[in-house]
Amino acid sequence: MSYIELDQVTKSIHGRRVLDGITLSIPKGTIAGFTGINGSGKSMLLRSVAGLASITSGTIEIDGKRLDRKKPYPVRLGLMMDAAGFWEHLSGRENLEALAGIRKVASAEDIAGTLALVGLEPSDRRPVHAYSLGMKQRLNLAQAVLEKPELLIMDEPTNALDEEGIQLVADVLGAERARGATILVSCHCQPKIEALFDLHYPLHEGAIREIDQT
Predict the structure, then answer these.
(1) CA distance 138 to 117
(2) How far apart are CA 166 and CA 168, in angstroms?
(3) For residue 2, which of 28, 21, 22, 23 has the smallest C-alpha distance?
(4) Fewest CB within 10 A of the end CB: N or C in the chain?
(5) What pairs with residue 156 in β-bridges?
């Protein structure tokens, strides 16, 4: 049985189909990549799988459990979206400490190590509002992987990053897959990221145009 199953997933907004009958199966421990131009449905699809958006019809199952927004998410989830919702007056480390305090899974050493992993200095006390866009994106990556999620969902993770940052994202993706995480990632014209895809789903007007298995 696949780890993630989507069956005829459809999302309509004001009569327009943003997602149009998407059906796919994703095995555990793979990287599934979604590509397409802006407005193709990538972000809505990932938000739906993450439980952040309701669907109009169809079903989403994760690890054999049907996704229900009224119930706890079925697996440990790491999420990297544009709006990370950081406390701007706190430092990057303080933000991760606050996050870690919810589940109490990550230690102080985990926090420092994850910040260093993404190229941020653990001892930097500057508030997040003083960060560059690239630094905020690195912090966004750090919070997504901090607690070693079973499922990692990343929407355009290379936004605002230079070539070094893009390579960093690629390295983290590879390491997370090697750890056993299942990863859903969207991107647009990023060969370093697309080279890591085990499954490639090009989207066009809310539908999968074709399926490439690399």
Answers:
(1) 9
(2) 5
(3) 28
(4) N
(5) none
- In this structure, the dihedral spanned by the alpha carbons of residues 103, 67, 78 and 33, taken in order and rounded to 10 degrees, is 170
10-42 residue pLDDT tens: 999 998 999 999 999 999 999 999 999 989 999
Q: Residues with Cβ < 8 Å from 190, sequence gap 6 or more?
A: 158, 166
Buried b / exposed e over 134-156, threshold 16 CB at 10 Å, is ebbbbbbbbbbbbbbbbbbbbbb
Task: Copy the structure tokens of residue 129.
Answer: 């509002």
14-20: list long-range contacts, CB under 8 Å, 24+ apart: 17/206, 18/44, 18/206, 19/44, 19/45, 19/48, 19/55, 19/206, 19/207, 20/205, 20/206, 20/207
Strand order in the sheet with 16-26: 16-26, 4-13, 57-62, 65-66
23: part of which helix (H) or strand (E)?
strand 16-26
Residue 213, beta-bridge partner list: 199
Q: Tens digit of pLDDT for each residue in 53-80? A: 999 999 999 999 999 988 999 999 999 9
Tokens of 116: 């260093």
Residues in the chain, total = 214
